[in-house]
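Notes taken during the Thursday session

The instructor put the following on the board and asked us to keep it in front of us for the whole hour. The protein is Amino acid permease. We were told not to look anything up and to reason only from what is written here. First, the residues (474 in total):
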Amino acid sequence: MSRTSPQSLAESAVEQQPVDQAAPTEPTLSHGLKQRHLSMIALGGVIGAGLFVGSGTAIAAAGPSIVLAYAISGALVMLVMRMLGEMAAAYPASGSFSVHSERAIGPWAGFTAGWAFWFLLCVAVGLEGIGAAGIVHAWLPGVPEWGLVAVFMVLFTVTNLAAVKNFGEFEFWFATLKVGAIVLFLVIGVLAVLGLLPGVDAPGTSNLTGHGGFMPNGSEGLIVGLLASVFAYGGLETVTIAAAESEHPVQGVAKAVRTAMWRIALFYVGSMAVVVVLLPWTAKEIPTKGPYVATLDHLGIPGAAQIMNVVVLVALLSAMNANIYGASRMATSLVARGQGPRAIGRLHGGVPRVAVLLSAVFGFLCVVLSYWRPNDIFQWLLNTIGAIILVVWFFIAVSQLILRRKLEREAPERLVVRMWLYPYLTVVALLAMVVVFVLMAREHETRVQLYYTGGLTVVLAIVGYVRQKAAERA
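Then, after some discussion, the predicted structure tokens were revealed:
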């Protein structure tokens, strides 16, 4: 007698009539992503330029306690990813958490979460393009930075206009290089910590306990490091969007989510631990050069700066590619559910080309504004996206809290991935998000971001609610 796996049961159930009769409509996209693409998108999604460069300022603020900050925020991200994975495996959708929010809370919530995330991704595309252009401009000073950004934009727009497998191939090789770089850094770092690297003495715990101790700037320093680390984890959501276009959506997203925990622990917490053990947190090179370059230079690794510049460039280009993809799919899903202009959602060979072009053009417009109006409009954009990812996580947690009960009651076979200790850890995650919001309100820089993001969220929620009520009356 043959046995059927839980994945097969769930995938079969997805093809049948949805449990919720008012389930959101999803566009018919192609299924060109293979399991290897999805696995590497999940691996690479957690490794961004924020880890390679931005973590330097966090170390300068928190000292060795940055390891604790990344561990705490990493634990929160693990919970969010598990919740999202549970819903994505039960209801694979290119709109991901936007679809789940609509299903659980209402159309206004799906509208708010979806368009806020689209806005975040488009602005991020511009920021990543600017960062990548800055690196290449140092190598080719004769080429203007805006021109380099334009080249990157055209490259990844063309990539995303073609079949989805092209996006998958780019991300596969980008992620391979990023993962390889992190693994190599960790191997070299661990050898140095153990005193097994030629010419380098084992540092012991001197850098952890000296220079003011493990928490030199007290709880305030830890809070700054915590806030910086929370937003460094953005990008994990892309794998649940991409899963809808994979050969086996349920199996793919389940595997990706189940391995997210060790990736976070290894790549983020592990690499931060290596840095603060090998270098004094007071080293000026950490915030100026970045923690990875500073550590490799300290160990006498030749060409460390240029090697890491290449890795950071790849991380930025990878993020551009992934964000154009994610933004286009989110916009297409929203339009298919009646949450935007129909023209945006038109498919050509299973690819939402209009949405790809719109997302890329909006991203390039942000680049133009960075040169034309850097102190007002562009700064407003930066402040507005500051806390969007946290708003999205909040919607994810609330949606999972509601949908899990419905799944257990009506379609338990779809629970291929289960949130741990439901509902207790979901509630813990929600409370942790509220704490982060409060901490953001206490710090001047993050307070401004919180206000702007809050304003955008309220405006979208009002528009979404008005649209929902109008649709109900029609």
